[in-house]
Amino acid sequence: MKTRIGLAALIAVAFSAAGPALAQGPATPLVAQSCAGCHGQSGEGEGAIPAIAGYDREAFVEVWEAFRANERPATIMNRIARGFTDDEVAVLADYFSSLR
Ligand code: HEC
Which end of the chain lies in a sparser environment, N or C, as judged by fewer CB atoms within 10 Å? Predict the structure, then answer.
């Protein structure tokens, strides 16, 4: 019995250690986590939701400002864009442009 518990603990440790090693790309910043529900875990997009992984950094900031200003057609991003500060947008732009 003791051995089985020991083995289970060892397996648990092995799996948690493998977690970060298996993750691909940079760690997701907190502000980018709310995007995953629509744009996918790695910004890959799905169906009507466009992919944003690998988005050009400058274009990202421009598109964001256009959403905020209602200058780009949007069903939802115009509202989402207004919920983030310029500093947060910089973090988002850095992150999504760094993905492949
Ligand atoms: C509720 C779903 C939803 C969430 C959450 C969401 N998006 Fe979007 N996003 C969309 C949709 C839908 C579009 C297409 C434009 C539209 O209809 O608003 C879009 C478009 C975009 C575009 C423009 C892509 C292109 O085609 O040029 C960018 C950039 C973007 N989103 C970034 C983000 C980021 C960054 C976040 C997180 C802060 C985020 N989105 C959160 C649904 C979402």
Answer: N
34 in contact with ligand 1, CB cutoff 6 A: yes
pLDDT in tens, 18-57: 444 455 677 899 999 999 999 999 999 999 999 999 999 9
- Closest atom of ligand 1 relative to the 55 alpha carbon: 29
- Residue 71 and residue 39 in contact, taking contact as beta carbons nearer than 8 Å: no
Q: Give the C-alpha separation, 96 to 59, whole Å.
A: 11
Compute the C-alpha angle 78/83/89, nearest 5°: 90
